[in-house]
Amino acid sequence: MVSSIIGEIxxxxxLLSHDDCLIDxxxxxxxxxxxxxxxxxxxxxxxxxxxxxxxxxxxxxxxxTRKLAFFKSERxxxxxxxxxxxxxxxxxLDEMFRRVRTLEKQKRAYxxxxxNSYDGIYITDxxxxxxxxxxxxxxxxxxxxxxxxxxxxxxxxxxxILTSSxxxxxxxxxxxxxxxxxxxxxxxxxxxxxxxxxxxxxxERVVTNIRDxxxxxDLMQELKKANELNNKYKKEIEKLKTMAPMDGIIFVSDKxxxxxxxxxxxxxxxxTVLLLGETGVGKEVIARNLFTRSNRSSKGExxxxxxxxxxxxxxxxxxxxxxxxxxxxxxxxxxxxxFEMAEGGILFLDEIGELPLSLQVxxxxxxxxxxxxxxxxxxxxxxDVRIISATNRNLKEMVHNGEFREDLxxxxxxxxxxxxxxxxxxxxxxxxxxxxxxxxxxxYHFQKKFDPHLRDFFFHFDWPGNVRELQNLIxxxxxxxxxxxxxxxSLPDDYKGANQKELGKSNEMSxxxxxxxxxxxxLASAVQTCNTTYELAEALESSQATIVRxxxxxxxxxxxxxxx
Length: 564
Hints:
The protein is of the alpha+beta class. The chain folds into five domains: 13-95; 117-215, PAS domain (Beta-Lactamase, 2-Layer Sandwich), CATH 3.30.450; 254-420, Rossmann fold; 423-499, Orthogonal Bundle (Helicase, Ruva Protein, domain 3); 511-554. A hairpin with a 4-residue loop joins strand 1 (13-16) and strand 2. Helix 17 (429-444) crosses helix 19 (466-480) and helix 22 crosses helix 23. The longest helix is centred in the middle third of the chain and has 29 residues, at 213-241. Mean pLDDT is 84; it is low at 241-247 and 560-564. Residues 173-225 form the PAC domain. Residues 216-243 form a coiled coil.
């Protein structure tokens, strides 16, 4: 009988049902109470306090001011739904149970941390037997966490769930070990095992952290795509900026505007471009502008070579490079040529008409095959280079005279652009002159200005040396004129004679030039008395928009009182 079992115990003893009802108790327990409890009373109603510990294996009880510890008895009873608890009263138990409660609270916190970790947690003993895992390991491996418990890492390796064991490496090396390996689900994981030492300094546990790198790799890919898109947008913005006239080419004339628009259309194709025009018209400026506005500006360099400035016997090595020991005096390590240096970018072949016939064949092969071969080399090398060539000679006539290969001519002539001389685009002269004056003032720390009559000379002079001649003359005037105002008298003697000729030609000017000269003089005179463009428009009986356009065309500033 249950009563006889409890009665034999010399300590307070009770028999509880699975739902905490008091089935029976002994004399020692009764003596603790003021009133005998009724049968099947709930233990929580009988005692002041009743709190289970360690999964109902023990309980802390309080009766008034007295505290007891009840422990689950191992004695077997007929009713398996019921359980005998034996109590013991001692001052030490109170402190012990306080510590137990603290430890249980900490355990719950640690359990929550482990279970809610986004990384997989895998804990084994020193022999590799799995003690515990968390739910994250299911997400990472696709295998229920319960499957791992009780199994050794060697078993998991044999079944193909693990590739190798970090646990054994930690035990062997007695330190934290990390490795990257694919898991059972095919995901790339970072596995880090850390040893836990006991008081004797021996490893008793190995805690392994498993991080799924697929999410991180996906994030890295997304970041890479975002950066690529960002760089693409930056290039587009820079490209849009280059659509403005102030992108290295200063122009007002319709001819140069057309060239500027053509450059914008062909900037991102790889077709060869042939720049034609007299010396000094700005062929290199156009070539650099095309490079700046192209996608190649972010992938390679703009490399220029003057085919007429290098001796023919050296030009081949400059263009195509050479291997070590290719000829006497060669660099021991060899040297890359201009084509290799321009990889991904643009090679500008200036004065292409001076290229020897022997090299024209090799250049034709580069254009056709997209590959070069160094001097002394045995293997060709692929190159990704766009070719822009320029000349002031008549290549078609050179072809007719046998001085230039016809097949190369047509390869270079895919997109020909003829840059007109300054005398055929006079509207660009004064804006260019102002740009060069501003540049020289900044370079030499001056505040020089042009006299209106000098500006008139600039406009009517034919400039046989074109833009280069204009730039050089302005630099000379800025440096040699002592006064802040540069006048016609400041011109060198050879230009003063030309000035008289230009004045003599004024009677033979075209109708368009006569109209422009008249417009300019009228505007220059009107700004002496008018302070705003609206006053000018009213005085000249024109629209304000027209006045603004004309002032910009002739580079006349309303605030600057121009004297005739």
